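Sequence, please.
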C-alpha cells in the first residue's frame, strides 16, 4: 500500500533561512523582521495562501526538511 504523505507548512529558523517552508519540497517564504503582531499575522496569512497554491512538482524535492 502506497500512502501519500500530505504536505505541511513548517517553520524553519536557521543560520541561512528563517521562514515558512513546505515539508515535501523546497518551496519557502523568507520571514521579514516585523515589529507588530498585526504585521506578523498578515505575513502568516499571505504565506499560508501562497503555500496552499504552490505545487510541489514545480519545486525540487528535498528530503530532511522536517
Amino acid at each position: 500500500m502506497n500512502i501519500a504523505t500530505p504536505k505541511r507548512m513548517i517553520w524553519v529558523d536557521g543560520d541561512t533561512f528563517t521562514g515558512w517552508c513546505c515539508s515535501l519540497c523546497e518551496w519557502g517564504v523568507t520571514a521579514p523582521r516585523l515589529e507588530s503582531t498585526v504585521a506578523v499575522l498578515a505575513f502568516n496569512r499571505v504565506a499560508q495562501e501562497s503555500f496552499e497554491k504552490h505545487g510541489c512538482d514545480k519545486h525540487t524535492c528535498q528530503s530532511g526538511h522536517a
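Residues 37-53 form the longest helix (17 residues).
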